């Protein structure tokens, strides 16, 4: 299990790197577009659209990585004040709920993406692209998120019986 967890951690690190690179590319695109618009009166066709897709891709790729790092949004003011065993139970219930919802949403997302590909649905904006090109990261992210919840549950089950102290904790 440790080797699998280490490999999976590397997969999620790649997701984090992709997310960072997309942010870098969006920043470069926005700066270049604004500079060209103000200095030369030129516009980069589709820059706003590409930035929208980039924001979505960044959020999708970063989510499972952030969960693995314990850097996700976490409101734990109650959990950290509970007795250790009760905090552990709440953590377990939250992870089980996260797993259930991630699996459910992954299934719906993957079905929707497949339907979109079969129907050849297009997004018509500055660029005309198949809709599934934009949808696939959501299904992938939810599958990776589901896997991470399984690892979280395993770590919780084999660790101390207390609430987690993570990067976003108070």
Written description of the protein model:
- By secondary structure, the protein is mainly alpha-helical.
- It has one domain.
- The protein contains four helices and two strands, in the order αααββα.
- A two-stranded antiparallel sheet has the order 1-2.
- A hairpin with a 3-residue loop joins strand 1 and strand 2.
- The chain is elongated and about 65 Å long.
Task: Report a brief summary of the structure.
With 170 residues, the chain is mostly helical.
How is the secondary structure organized here?
Elements: H1 2-40, H2 47-69, H3 84-119, E1 122-124, E2 128-130, H4 131-158
Antiparallel strand pairs: 1-2
Beta-strand level of the residues, as a percent range? under 5%
Q: How would you state the average pLDDT, rounded?
A: 93
Q: What strand order characterises the main sheet?
A: 1-2
> Could you spell the SSE succession in H and E letters?
HHHEEH
Residue stretches low in confidence (pLDDT < 50, at least 5 long) are none
**Would you tell me the structural class of the helices and strands?**
mainly alpha
3D shape: elongated
The quaternary structure here is single chain
Q: Figure out the total of helices.
A: 4
The figure for the number of domains is 1
Largest sheet: number of strands, sense, barrel closure = 2 strands, antiparallel
- Compute the separation of the termini in Å: 31 Å
